[in-house]
Amino acid sequence: MTKKIGRPTDNPKPYKITVRLDEKSKKILDSYCENNGTNQMEAVRRAIEKLATED
After folding, report:
1. Within a domain: residue 1?
2. Is 18 contained in some domain?
3. pLDDT digits (tens, 9 = 90+) for 6-45
4. What is the domain extent for residue 44?
5. How far apart are CA 12 and CA 33, in angstroms?
6. Of residues 35 and 4, which shows the higher confidence score?
7. How far apart are CA 26 and CA 20, in angstroms?
């Protein structure tokens, strides 16, 4: 097996998910990303972290 090339990370992300969104949810996500200068996956990670702090 060949060694992976790239920068090592302190926080690997080995899990992949796929989400289907309706138009309203997509617009909300796009608006959040634009207003906060982030990409969609980072926005989803932030939302998941927020869910964890609600409990």
Report:
1. no
2. no
3. 777 788 888 999 999 999 999 999 999 999 999 999 999 9
4. 23-54
5. 22
6. 35
7. 9
* Tokens read off for 48: 């998941």
Distances (CA, A) of 31 to 3, 13, 28: 39, 25, 5
Q: Is 3 a residue whose pLDDT tops 90?
A: no
* pTM for this entry: 0.74
**DSSP output for 5-55:** PS---SS-----------HHHHHHHHHHHHHHT--HHHHHHHHHHHHHHH-
d(CA 7, CA 26): 31
Q: Please state the domain count of the chain.
A: 1
What is the rounded distance in angstroms from the CA atom of residue 24 to the CA atom of residue 46?
19
